[in-house]
């Protein structure tokens, strides 16, 4: 019935918003912003009606959750980095019907997932930052999936990703994009020296592992990447324990994926962490 039209791993670094503002860092994330706008353009060209974001800033301690309210609107300040993202206005429509389909399909696959449509839940900046640049005209409906999963197995997140694709293709009447919103390695620079690391990795080891991962993607060595994902997430401080990435690759086929990657924004360092915008063929 429905179609999964686009799948991507994306950055959401708060310095993208800082990059808009007058001051010493104006323009510092132009490449990342341009990457988001390009992904948004591709979604428009593909006829996408809803973007599902696997958000590594939505922390959950039990189960999996889908925020699928009918409408989201407010003014956001990050409690994590209030000097980077502050007083950010947003307004997007949600997709309750799709959110419930996703949750029901994941639960049927053995991964207990709850959809929240009648809710006061707001969106986190793992969703808000990309929507600012991909969805400026509010063309796309937005659904957010909790992906900062503190006591969860990556294999369950992969199962959820597979269920998301099945729900879209078997039960949804529309066209969807999925975004894994989170970094590669994610060791923030130590307090007191963070300004020195705005454009640097915290440690060469983390950078080298990240670059090897990108190389594996470009070579199409998906079985190697998925096999190493749990250790990669552990040893390189993967953002959200890389549950967003497990969901993404679950939807793509995990170790049986046979597609290719298009690097939209080349790998870059931000506040000690490794970042990228990459689109995977579906």
Automatic annotation (TrEMBL):
Residues 7-280 form the Extradiol ring-cleavage dioxygenase class III enzyme subunit B domain. It comes from the Bacteria. The keyword Oxidoreductase applies. InterPro entries: HPCD, Xdiol_dOase_suB. Keywords: Dioxygenase, Oxidoreductase. GO terms for molecular function: 3,4-dihydroxyphenylacetate 2,3-dioxygenase activity; ferrous iron binding. It holds the Pfam family LigB. Gene3D superfamilies: LigB-like (3.40.830.10). Signal peptide: none annotated. The keyword Iron does not apply. This is 3,4-dihydroxyphenylacetate 2,3-dioxygenase. It comes from Azospirillum palustre.
């Amino acid at each position: 019935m429905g179609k999964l039209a686009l799948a991507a791993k994306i950055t959401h670094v708060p310095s993208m918003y800082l990059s808009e503002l007058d001051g010493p860092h104006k323009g510092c994330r132009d490449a990342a912003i341009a990457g988001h706008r390009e992904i948004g353009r591709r979604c428009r060209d593909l006829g996408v009606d809803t973007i599902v974001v696997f958000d590594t800033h939505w922390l959950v301690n039990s189960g999996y959750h889908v925020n699928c309210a009918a409408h989201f609107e407010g003014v956001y300040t990050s409690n994590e980095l209030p000097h980077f993202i502050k007083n950010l206005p947003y307004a997007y429509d949600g997709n309750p019907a799709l959110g419930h389909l996703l949750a029901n399909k994941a639960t049927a696959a053995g991964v207990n997932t709850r959809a929240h449509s009648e809710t006061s839940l707001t969106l986190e900046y793992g969703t808000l930052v990309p929507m600012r640049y991909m969805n400026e005209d509010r063309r796309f409906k937005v659904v957010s999936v909790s992906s900062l999963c503190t006591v969860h197995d990556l294999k369950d997140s992969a199962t959820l990703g597979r269920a998301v694709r099945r729900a879209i293709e078997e039960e949804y009447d529309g066209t969807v994009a999925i975004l894994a919103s989170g970094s590669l390695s994610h060791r923030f620079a130590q307090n007191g020296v963070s300004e020195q690391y705005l454009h640097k990795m915290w440690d060469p080891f983390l950078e080298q592992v990240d670059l090897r991962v990108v190389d594996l993607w470009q070579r199409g060595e998906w079985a190697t990447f998925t096999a190493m994902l749990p250790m990669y997430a552990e040893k390189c401080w993967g953002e959200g324990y890389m549950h967003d990435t497990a969901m993404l690759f679950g939807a793509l086929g995990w170790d049986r994926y046979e597609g290719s990657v298009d690097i939209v924004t080349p790998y870059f360092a931000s506040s000690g962490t490794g970042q990228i915008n990459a689109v995977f063929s579906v």
